[in-house]
Specification:
About 50% of the residues lie in helices and about 15% in strands. It has 10 helices and 8 strands. The model has no long low-confidence stretch (mean pLDDT about 85).
């Protein structure tokens, strides 16, 4: 299989047939073998029924129906796990991403890149609730990760199979896939893509998403730098408190010697506090080391549960 298109779906019943028509037209013109994998992420409308109608008439369309709404990351992970194309393209199902950009993404992959990230250069979203928070989030992500990707929030991205299959997705980490890929040596580039205003349905994103992204960013940074050596992280904090504990101990001893009497003031409290925090963070580090070893030695469990599948080989 040359190409896999993976599309999470959540309450997009009015967009699905229009999206399929555009995808079908573009993909048939590529002269490549392909599959379109729709992942129904617990939609509460008639999205699944619309998908079934399409799959009945086109065996290139495959459906993964999740038992409930597990979230966009889990839906993407399910589609990726069951995809077999050498190039995997992820995109949204709300018609804001344009299937006509797919050939350009493939051309960039064929130039030797492992990841091609869509860049919504002329984004058709509200300024204050979407564009400005997204700009701030992308700026922070680039600063902390040192990976220069212009638009991590754009779902339209192309990946070589071997790169994407090596990444395990958890939580809401789908937006950081290019960063994870860069950590394993992937060659990444940006590509300006079209972006359309939403015609039907309601956006699942709001300004609160920016705060979630920032929280996830710190988790990503910790996992990237300390996932196999958490003691280094907690050890730095413990070391800082150790220095303060030593410093205040000397200050206290100096004051005791100078006054020639035992002192019970705030200095003594600070000494006990800093020594206690030193021991506490060392304990956190040891506990994290144990948890990391359990995690790496245990079986991988999926972040989703499939109810049924359509057009997949048994």
């Amino acid at each position: 299989m040359d190409l896999s298109i993976v599309l999470p779906v959540y309450n997009e019943e009015k967009n699905i047939s229009l999206l399929y028509e555009k995808l079908d037209k573009v993909l048939k013109g590529l002269n490549k073998s392909y599959e379109i994998i729709f992942v129904n992420d617990g939609s509460k409308d008639n999205s699944y029924d619309e998908l079934v109608k399409i799959a009945e008439n086109d065996k290139n369309v495959k459906i993964i129906n999740l038992r409930k709404n597990f979230g966009q990351t889990a839906a993407m992970a399910a589609g990726i796990d069951y995809s077999i194309g050498e190039i995997i393209i992820l995109m949204d199902s709300d018609l804001q991403n344009d299937p006509e950009d797919i050939p350009a993404l493939i051309d960039k992959i064929n130039e030797g890149y492992d990841v091609v990230s869509g860049w919504r250069k002329k984004r058709k979203d509200p300024l204050f609730s979407r564009k400005i928070p997204s700009f701030i989030a992308n700026l922070l992500i680039k600063k902390i990760s040192n990976v220069n990707v212009k638009d991590l929030g754009c779902s339209l991205k192309a990946y070589k199979k071997d790169v994407l299959k090596s990444i395990r997705l958890y939580g809401d980490m789908h937006r950081f896939i290019p960063i994870y890929a860069s950590w394993v040596g992937a060659k990444i580039t940006d590509l300006p893509v079209k972006h359309h205003p939403r015609q039907f349905g309601k956006s699942k994103y709001g300004i609160s998403r920016t705060f979630k992204v920032i929280i996830d960013l710190f988790a990503m940074k910790f996992l990237g730098s300390y996932s196999t050596k958490p003691m280094h992280f907690f050890g730095k904090i413990a070391g800082l408190h150790f220095i303060f504990a030593i410093l205040w101990s000397f200050i206290y001893l100096y004051r005791v010697i100078k006054s020639k009497k035992f002192l019970t003031d705030e200095s003594l409290v600070l000494i006990f506090l800093f020594w206690a925090l030193t021991v506490l963070f060392i304990g956190f580090g040891l506990l994290a080391e144990v948890m990391v070893r359990v995690y790496h030695e245990s079986q991988n469990k999926p972040t989703y549960i499939i109810k049924d599948k359509i057009n997949f080989d048994k």
